[in-house]
Specification:
With about 140 residues, the protein is mainly α. Helix content is about 75%, strand content about 0%. Helix 2 runs antiparallel to helix 4, helix 2 runs parallel beside helix 5 and helix 4 packs antiparallel against helix 5. The longest helix is centred in the middle third of the chain and has 28 residues. The two termini are about 25 Å apart.
Length: about 140
C-alpha cells in the first residue's frame, strides 16, 4: 500500500522517504510509457498503471469509509484527510489530474458530511457523488 495508517504512524522522515519512493516509481512508470511501444511493453505498463490507480483509489476510499464507520476524534479526521490528499497526489501521477481531482472531491464531500452532517454546505463539490456507498 502506498499510503496507509502504518505509513502515517512512521516518523515524518520515514513517511517522506516512503512517499518519495512511491512518487519516483510512478514517475518512472509514466516516463516508460513513452518507450512502451518501441520496447513492446505498453500493455504491461498500461495494466500496471491501471492496477496501481485502482489500488490508490480503493485505499483512499477505505480510509474515508473507516472514518465514517467508526468516527473518532479530530486527529483521526485529519489523518483520513492526509491519506486522502496523499492518495490524490499519487493518483495524479498514475492516472492524471482529472481522476485525482474527482477522488479529492468525493473524499472531501464525504468527510465534510461526517464532520457536520446537518449543515448544508454549498461548495465546488455540489452535485458530485460522495465516495460510493458512504452516504
Amino acid at each position: 500500500a502506498l499510503v496507509d495508517a502504518a505509513t502515517l504512524s512512521k516518523s515524518p522522515e520515514q513517511r517522506e522517504e516512503r512517499l518519495q519512493k512511491a512518487e519516483d516509481h510512478l514517475i518512472a512508470l509514466r516516463r516508460a510509457e513513452r518507450y512502451g511501444k518501441t520496447l513492446r511493453i505498453s500493455e504491461v505498463l498500461e495494466k500496471t498503471l491501471t492496477d496501481v490507480s485502482g489500488q490508490i483509489e480503493a485505499q483512499a476510499e477505505q480510509a474515508v469509509v473507516d472514518m465514517i464507520d467508526t468516527p473518532k476524534g479530530e486527529r483521526d479526521i485529519e489523518q483520513a484527510k492526509e491519506v486522502l490528499y496523499t492518495s490524490v497526489r499519487m493518483l495524479e501521477l498514475a492516472a492524471g489530474s482529472q481522476r485525482a481531482d474527482a477522488l479529492r472531491k468525493r473524499g472531501l464531500t464525504s468527510l465534510n458530511d461526517l464532520t457536520d452532517p446537518d449543515q448544508a454546505k454549498p461548495s465546488a463539490t455540489d452535485g458530485l457523488e460522495p465516495i460510493k456507498g458512504l452516504l
